[in-house]
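dumping this here before i forget
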Amino acid sequence: MKLFNTLLKKLVVHNSYLYDANGKATGKKHKLTVVKHGKFVYVWNNGEEFRINGKKFCRLANGKFIKVANLQTVKAIKIKHYRARLYDKNGKLLKKHITLTKGKCYWAWNDAKIVKIHGKKYYRVGKNRYVRANKAAKVEIKTALDADKLK
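structure:
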């Protein structure tokens, strides 16, 4: 079995330290290694969880560990409408009026689960960024765009 078949892409939702196999935070010269929120990491064995000192961790491709509580799985959605706009957590249009391009794929947080805001269905595609569910559809794909990077 190839290593790449066992890697799973996850999203870091909180700034997180990297740990060694003993549960100690790692770094160089008194400076701990931090993975910033919004970054993607690859975990081994399809996200298999390890218990170290009673806490749950996932093993990264570089052999370090990261806490499970700081990760979310992502799936892709494909935009099927020519004017799919971004909304905030209150269901209001973002002031920048960013539109997602029809036919392109974007990463959706939390396994592309639908979120209801004021009775309307949305996919979460970034930090405080949502797209209407009727303008997109789930797809199985390996590469997609990150909506948080859109300006």
